[in-house]
Amino acid sequence: MTLQPAANDFDRLFRLYHRDLGAFAYGRLRDSEASSDVVQDAFVRYIAHTRTAREAPEAPRFFLWRIASNLILDLGRRDRRRGRMASLDDVAAELADPTPSVEHQLSAREEYRVFMQALNELPKNQRLALVLNRVEQMTHAEIARRLDVSPSMVNKYIMKALSHCAIRLMQAGR
Questions:
Q1: What total of structural domains would you count in the chain?
Q2: Which structural domain, as residue segments, surrounds residue 75?
Q3: How far apart are CA 164 and CA 173, in angstroms?
Q4: Who contacts 157 (Cβ-Cβ below 8 Å, separation ≥6)?
Q5: Which tens digit of pLDDT belongs to each residue from 57-69?
Q6: What range(s) does the RNA polymerase sigma-70 region domain occupy (predicted)?
């Protein structure tokens, strides 16, 4: 049986309960900084209360958890009242226009044209192996059966096809 520390043995109370109280706060808030603040504030309020109260709390652990619960509720109310603060990085995707710019659309069309031209320059088996693997999501073994070649040959076809397309895109400045 573990004896509870005296209500005014703040150092022992902190060592005994701060980790569990932090886990409790984190479980409710899912924010490590906010939960650390709650734990710190809970202990500060506990100490302030025990110094001014006529009697020390009978159950310090319960009292600390009650303080932390109230602080968590206060944080929730404050956030609802103020709205949650967010960094610009967090909301950048929401602020950005989802439609690509005209320049981006033109660039993408030109890149597609160059890629399709490079694809059409490939020998039939290389082109087919690349398309079956990257578009149809077929495995090398499935492609090998379809083309009646070994899986290692399929790997070579795909590598040569990718290399050829990459060279053509680089030559076009893409």
A1: 2
A2: 10-85
A3: 14
A4: 125, 126, 129, 130, 147, 149
A5: 888 899 999 999 9
A6: 13-82
Contacts (Cβ under 8 Å, ≥6 apart) of 141: 151
Are both 32 and 72 inside the same structural domain? yes
Q: How far apart are CA 147 and CA 153, in angstroms?
A: 10
Alpha-carbon dihedral 53, 55, 59, 65, rounded to 10 degrees: -10
Decide if pLDDT at 55 tops 90. no
Q: How far is CA 124 from CA 64, 128, 151, 153, in A?
A: 73, 6, 17, 14
User: 58-62, 68-72, 131-135, 170-174: lowest mean pLDDT where?
Assistant: 170-174
Assess contact for 70 and 100: CB atoms under 8 A. Answer: no
CA distances (Å), 56 to each of 18, 50, 95, 141, in order?
19, 5, 53, 74
